[in-house]
Design a protein that fits this description.
single chain, alpha/beta, 16 helices, 46% helix
């Protein structure tokens, strides 16, 4: 009887110990202590997987990152990050800096540490028993490749927008811009030419290789602000199903920094430098550095299967060497709105193909008034519930623009005559005193010249593919 009571007492004690361990979390501490003691009797080897191999991205790092974030053991870590998934109600776990994650393969246990040094350089460190190294290291790395490839294949529909930060690094966010060639306001003929050119590029790998040329294509988009250049880049990326790398030259330290950024880009991407004519003069990057970015030995090694896009307001202030064939293959002009573009916008924004106010709008355009597509689009969006009201707002804006242009023409003509009567004035190139470069006559003359140049540029050809 006493033995039975003793066994019953032992059972009760063990049951209480089990409850204490599992309910209070002491079981995790016991497991940790056990692993620490076991580690004292084994020899381990460490393998480091850095994010970058000198200057280029280490693709194994990306695969390890994808693989580790898919492990269920990440939930058992002491600390991890929570993020919103593809849907608003999805929650995903992501590794934190210096977090340790355990994994098992073929009966062997390994550990990964997500490291980052004081300079921001990231790496993964694999800890594996030396006794297991020969047996599992090769198959384990192959297993990581296979799983990561499967996971990346599922997420191919998720494009990314990369932006450059300091220390020659890229940071990414999901790219979900809604603009496509189906909804962008553009001439149908021009749109079809661009789509055909991009389709030829996608199918041209063997052709480019046979010619001994890098499999890349470069575009120059030029025109006033608000004419749709950035939206066009988004439509290109969506059509190609490519990632986008947006290069901010103001954050690039020098030419070498720009080269490093190029080396870190991936294939199947659109690399964009916006406002090149403005930034090329106000940043630490030289013109020769940008030339080497587009056409050099470095480009031949790191620009395969990439589209390069440059945007600017005009080509007048850019060195022609930057725009020659081989560096820029296709030139596309984005002018201010004319009546044809206006009708496309009205159909897209208001669902109106014909309207009684269209003849009045056409007459105003013929008199020289114009606005950017962005300006007209904003007026239509704000008044989309009433197409008639929206068109009236557009007419008023166009009339104001026409009045301003006529005022500039009259004032510019009158003041330029006054300036020409002064022999020492800056328009005559005199070397003496006079009014200097900031006289009102000069300012109005420059405005007049700018308006005439914009008006004449609208008649130029929009699409110019350079001949190879």
């Amino acid at each position: 009887m006493g033995r039975i009571l003793w066994l019953l007492g032992v059972g009760i004690v063990l049951f209480l110990v089990r409850i204490v361990l599992f309910k209070t979390g002491l079981i995790h501490m016991v497991k940790k202590w056990r692993r620490t003691i076991v580690d004292l009797f084994h020899v381990y080897q460490h393998y480091k997987v850095p994010e970058f191999n000198e200057v280029q991205e280490n693709h194994l790092y990306r695969k390890v990152y994808t693989y580790l974030n898919s492990l269920s053991s990440i939930e058992d870590s002491d600390f991890t990050n929570l993020f919103t998934g593809k849907k608003s109600n999805d929650i995903v776990l992501r590794l934190d800096r210096n977090q340790v994650v355990g994994d098992e393969f073929l009966g062997a246990r390994v550990c990964w540490t997500n490291g980052e040094d004081e300079n921001g350089a990231k790496s993964f460190v694999l800890k594996i028993r030396k006794a297991d190294k020969r047996r599992i290291l090769g198959p384990y790395l192959q297993h990581i490749h296979t799983v990561a490839d499967e996971l990346e294949q599922r997420n191919t529909e998720l494009k990314k927008l990369f932006i450059n930060v300091k220390n020659k690094r890229w940071r990414s966010i999901p790219f979900n811009h809604p603009c496509t060639f189906d909804n962008i306001a553009m001439e149908t003929d021009l749109k079809n030419k661009v789509k055909s050119d991009l389709e030829s590029f996608l199918k041209g790998k063997q052709y480019y290789n046979r010619l001994g040329r890098v499999w890349k294509r470069s575009y120059l988009l030029y025109g006033p602000s608000g004419t749709g250049k950035s939206s066009f880049v988004a439509a290109m990326a969506n059509f190609l199903d490519y990632d986008v790398y947006d290069v901010d030259l103001s954050k690039v330290a020098d030419d070498s920094d720009l080269k490093m950024l190029l080396l870190q880009t991936r294939g199947k991407s659109v690399i964009v430098i916006e406002d090149l004519d403005r930034l090329a003069k106000s940043t630490a990057v030289s013109v020769s550095g940008i030339l080497n970015f587009t056409d050099s030995i470095l480009t031949s090694c790191a620009a395969d299967e990439r589209i390069m896009v440059f945007t600017m307001t005009g080509k007048e202030n850019i060195d022609p060497a930057m725009l020659r064939p081989g560096r820029v293959d296709v030139h596309i002009h984005f002018p201010l709105c004319d009546f044809t573009a206006f009708k496309t916008l009205a159909n897209s924004y208001l669902g109106v193909k014909e309207h009684k106010l269209f003849p009045q709008v056409e007459g105003i355009f013929q008199n020289g008034a114009s606005l950017s597509p962005a300006e007209i689009g904003e007026l239509m969006i704000a008044n989309r519930s009433s197409p008639t009201r929206a068109l009236k707002y557009v007419i008023n804006a166009l009339q104001r623009d026409g009045n301003v242009r006529r005022s500039f023409l009259e004032n510019g003509s009158r003041r330029s005559e006054d300036a020409s009567s002064e022999m020492s004035g800056p328009l005559c190139g005199g070397g003496g005193g006079g009014g200097g470069g900031s006289s009102p006559g000069v300012k109005e003359f420059r405005k007049l010249y700018g308006l005439l140049r914009i008006k004449s540029s609208r008649k130029s050809e929009s699409y110019d593919a350079a001949r190879d």
